[in-house]
Amino acid sequence: MPPDQQTDAAAPRRPRLTPQIADVRRAVRGVLPVGSDASRSPLVLVALSGGADSLALAAATAFEAPRAGCRAGAVIVDHGLQPGSAEVADAAAATARELGLDPVIVRRVEVTGEGGPEASARDARYAALDAAAAETGAALLLLGHTLDDQAETVLLGLARGSGAASLSGMPARAGRYARPLLGIRRAAARQACLDAGLAPWDDPHNLDPAYARVRVRERVLPVLEAELGPGIAEALARTAEQLREDEGAFSEQIEEVIEEICEPAEAGIAISSGALAANPAALRQRIIRHVVGSEFGVSLSRAQTLEIARLVTDWHGQGSIDLPGGVRATRAGAHVVLSTIGSTEVLPHDH
After folding, report:
1. Exposed (0-12), middle (13-18) or buried (19+): which is 292, by Cβ within 10 Å?
2. What element of type H or E holds 94?
3. pLDDT in tens, 264-312
4. End-to-end CA distance of the chain, in Å?
5. Long-range contacts formed by 238-243: CB under 8 A, 24+ apart
6. pTM for the whole structure
7. Which domains does the chain have, with CATH numbers?
């Protein structure tokens, strides 16, 4: 055998660049920070479960990060929710090391079940990811959510009647978190793994119809595709993107308006009822939700928001409104006063 062929045979196998691998790499390339030199290379961590989406993300990040002047590692969170979860986590960590990721961190968390199993697991997972990022000084945490995940999120929000904020789905970037694969289909991520010779783990929970998201994935979306034609998932993802743009524009408007129409009140805040009345309903409701959320950390339902709005739009001397979190809304003269229950409500000074 010629020497050059011997060298090639002895060299480690590199996966053939397929369209799916290229698409995932391109998506990752678009979110990576650019490092200036080796001593200040930013660290990027991949949240790795071992499933196809996060495994494709990890492989692409391992390839792209050095070319961007970054270091790349992985965080594996073991929720302990099913037998053998520790072995699955350890296998994912071993794969991450084989890909060249470093550091590789495995965190085992306790899922309390508070707020439901999905919410509790999500809270525990993000707490572990945040802790790992803080300890390592990571500049970015990459999550493997795909276009299909976005479509499912929009449908679930639609079913709950959650409004534009929920229908806008998951953001591509939020703080230290980034979701580079929101434009990539789940099937493409799986194919990228197979093309790279990687064996993804299939979470049994992803087939359990007890979870609403699984029912949307396995039953609802296929029916919509069959009855309305292909491209439903892409259309839902586009809807989320458009609504997120709208929500961003409203948020900027609200920040500007609030400074002009709000003032301190006893144990709370007062909003000018005249200013609320002068704004269109969409902006008025958003101002109310934003003020209650930012001041008291309470998320209002649409029914609760409209009840407060009626203190402006349908004022006929009705009493105060008790809200979640010990918050009370009261009409006091030319203001709607939001305060904690038990406080003495004081009308703001007239200017």
Report:
1. buried
2. helix 85-99
3. 988 799 999 999 999 999 889 999 999 999 899 998 888 999 999 999 9
4. 93
5. 239/154, 239/167, 240/150, 240/153, 240/154, 240/167, 240/168, 240/169, 240/170, 241/168, 241/169, 243/164, 243/167, 243/168, 243/169
6. 0.79
7. 3-239 (3.40.50.620), 266-340 (3.30.465.60)
